[in-house]
Amino acid sequence: MSDTQKVSDAVAKLYDTYPFPPEPILDEPPPGYNWRWNWLAAYNFCTGMKPQKQNIRILDAGCGSGVGTEYLVHLNPFAEVVGIDLSAGTLEVAKERCQRSGANRAEFHQLSLFDVEQLPGEFDLINSVGVLHHTNDPIRGIQALANKLAPGGIFHIFVYGELGRWEIQLMQKAIALLQGDKKGDYPDGVAVGRQIFNSLPEHNRILKREKERWSMENQRDENFADMYVHPQEIDYNIDTLFDLIDASGLEFVGFSNPAFWDLERLLSQAPELIDRSKNLSQRQLYRLIELLDPETSHYEFFLARPPFTKADWQSDRNLLAAIPEVSPCIDGFPSQTIFNYDYKIVKLSDREFTFMQACDGKLTVSEILETVEFSLGEVRSLQQQQLIMLTPA
Question: What is the pTM of this model?
Answer without folding.
Answer: 0.96
